[in-house]
């Protein structure tokens, strides 16, 4: 399977919104209509349905892992290298951020990025998850946890991957995640950021 096939497939996979799927499966309001209006696991949790939030989290992270696994499996046989794997990783991530199925208005990319990290190096992914959990437990703010994890991810990448194309891909994903959280950053500074578990259903 060539890179020209894998990149579009990864983008389409990334474009699948498990938050929107969860709202349909569990008969919940569309997550784009309440709370932060973001189709991610944290906002789906505001519906009060933990199973739907877990489905969203696992689905969004899973697609990131699957895309990297595809690239790692097929690209070496096709003469691909780390640059090809990095390109596929970015494709699935950007598919989540700008999904073709949702008119290019997607989530903030945290779960999908974690899936990508786990695919590139399990220890790197687990390190990002650990810091997210630590910050979330202490301050009960998903956005703050995401920002801290995103800020540290490139450092983890340097440690576990070295100076490779995948490290640059992780840096790009981190910058995009921080950019997608710009409204949350303003709320954090103002002391008005919503805490994990706050209900937001209409």
**Assembly annotation:** single chain
Number of strands: 0
Intertermini distance: 46 Å
Order of helices and strands: HHHHHHHHHH
Radius of gyration, in Å, reads 16 Å
β-sheet strand percentage: under 5%
Low-confidence stretches: none
- Residue-averaged pLDDT, rounded? 93
* Alpha-beta classification: mainly alpha
Helices, by number, come to 10
Helicity, as a percent range? 55-70%
The shape, in one word, is globular
User: Strand count, sense and closure of the main sheet?
Assistant: none
What does this protein structure show overall?
By secondary structure, this protein is an all-alpha fold. It has ten helices and no strands. The protein has helices at 3-14, 18-25, 41-45, 50-74, 82-97, 110-120, 122-139, 142-161, 165-180, 182-190. α4 (50-74) runs parallel beside α6. It is globular and about 50 Å long. The model has no long low-confidence stretch (mean pLDDT 93).
Features:
about 200 residues; mainly alpha; globular
Write the layout of secondary structure elements.
Layout: H1 3-14, H2 18-25, H3 41-45, H4 50-74, H5 82-97, H6 110-120, H7 122-139, H8 142-161, H9 165-180, H10 182-190
Helix pairs in contact: 1-4, 1-5, 2-4, 4-5, 4-6, 5-9, 6-7, 6-9, 7-8, 8-9
Quick take:
The chain has 202 residues and is mainly alpha-helical. It contains 10 helices and no strands. It is globular and about 50 Å long.
